[in-house]
Amino acid sequence: MALERLGAAWRQHYIENEARRPAGNRDCVFCELIDGGVGPETGIIALEDGVCVILNAYPYGSGHLLVLPMRHCGDLLSLDAREQAALFRVATKTIAAVEAAYHPEGVNFGANLGRAAGAGIPEHLHIHVLPRWNGDTNFITTIGEARVLPEALETTHAKVSAVWATL
After folding, report:
1. Is residue 104 a contact partner of residue 64, using CB atoms and an 8 Å limit?
2. pLDDT (mean) for 97-120
């Protein structure tokens, strides 16, 4: 049986930059990206009312976005009422943008609060917004423990940014 190979060249930039960062002294990747501003280089779709909308660097599927407070905070309960309202307002707008850009049959919306709950970056609170379609999970995810994405992150950024400007 021949070994099958799946390419993910779009992840090379992230991996190279991550490898250059000294272990034990890593700053927050979200805060670093926010400092870079909106654009395809950072993956940021919008910075609005103290909230950032950014591409997930390790998406479960095309259109997978993250919504996070610009203030470095890992706990939803540490946000004040204004920050909570802004986070939910921008998350709602993000769902509208994903629906307009992708026309999904459903949307996953949620947060993993803490490492034990599955948060990959528990130090900086973030909410996932992920368009879904009936049957979008297939054998490669279930058996091969891999995901195949039909579009590059740059394409996702362009699609959602174009819609964002109209909302």
Report:
1. no
2. 94
